[in-house]
Sequence to fold (222 residues):
Amino acid sequence: MHSMTQTLLAGLLTCAAITATAPAQAATTADQESVTLHQAVAELPVAAEDRTGYNRESSFGGWIDADHDGCSTRPEVLLDEAVTAPEVTGRCTLTGGTWYSWYDDTTINDARALDIDHLVPLAESWDSGASQWSKERRVRYANYLDDPRHLVAVTARSNRSKSDQDPATWMPPAADATCRYTADWISVKLTWGLTIDPAERTALTTLADNCPDQSIDYTPTS
Fold:
């Protein structure tokens, strides 16, 4: 009888544990939101931009090694997006490898010819609400690796041509990059609760009208 009681008790505890963890799992799934491209443009809040007080280094800091594995954000993105993986030696030194810069439809065989682009630039994010964040949140934004749409390895020339511009004044030169860039831009703004200015909204509306009404999935950050 003692053995049977133990068995029943163990079964009840197992069921209780499953029941206790189920709501947490459901909440994690529910955190993700989905909206169509055209709806997303309409839902983004519109506000005038303000760059008062912006300084890239003091506002957002530089690359960090968030997981303490020896690789900072830049090589982490390069490793994640490599078409052909580079060799990693020493303190995360990358040798060899191949990358595809979808902004300008270009294949690159030298990591030194690549920049890591914040798809929504740091200055643009500051203008659109990040100026009100804590420094910790801004550093997190600048080094965000949880969603590959946020940081993109692209040719240095395309990144520097873009600078801190939004879609009202700059779009990737590759024709087939337009809809992807539009959707990714909107997803980043939704993820971080950033605003758009009137000219940006006009541009995004026009761009979205000429793209398939795809679903944009994103997880808002806290």
Q: What stands out?
A: Residues 31-51+59-218 form one domain.
